[in-house]
Model the fold of this input.
Amino acid sequence: MSLPSFPETLGSGSTVLVAGTVDPSHYALGLRALCQYGHDSESALVVTTIESADQTCSAYERVCSTDRPLIGLVDTTSERQYVSSFYRDSPTVYTPSSADLERIVIALSDLTESKLPTTETRHLVIRSLTPLLRSSPSKRVCRVLQRITGLRTGTGIGFFGLNYTEHDKQTIAELSHHVDGILWVTQGSDHDLEFEYQAARNYSR
Done:
């Protein structure tokens, strides 16, 4: 399987909904975006909703071995809940589940205030919104996106993944109001991925 490069229209402070026929976290697309657009002088907030923090760190090392932003993690999946690890290479806050949106917001704020070094550029990646949308109305998830998008700094990107086959058109339309564009990700018969970028304002509502 081959992965195309991300479109040139992405980057430089943009926020993107990464909508795939398979969940983007399966191919670590948000982590790959950090590798393409980020540098080791920068930082990133990463919310894990399908894979654990340990799995996310392993995937990050695999897809981005050099010149990568330091990541701080909010892990909503692990059994080691409430035992936050601030002194590992990737500071991590554990929350009870992906259904607890308020705890996710608090955890992200906690990371930015005292656990991640201050950098001119800070990125934000939610590896998959799909678990959040299974347990919370889309309007509530959108309100959370409004609150946390501002945690980026400088030219930091915002990458929000989801498996769009699990959501209706109205949900995608509501989410599109809170991003600059949508990166459609499809898998061909040869299992290679294809990217198509669409400005959010052009999405049919």
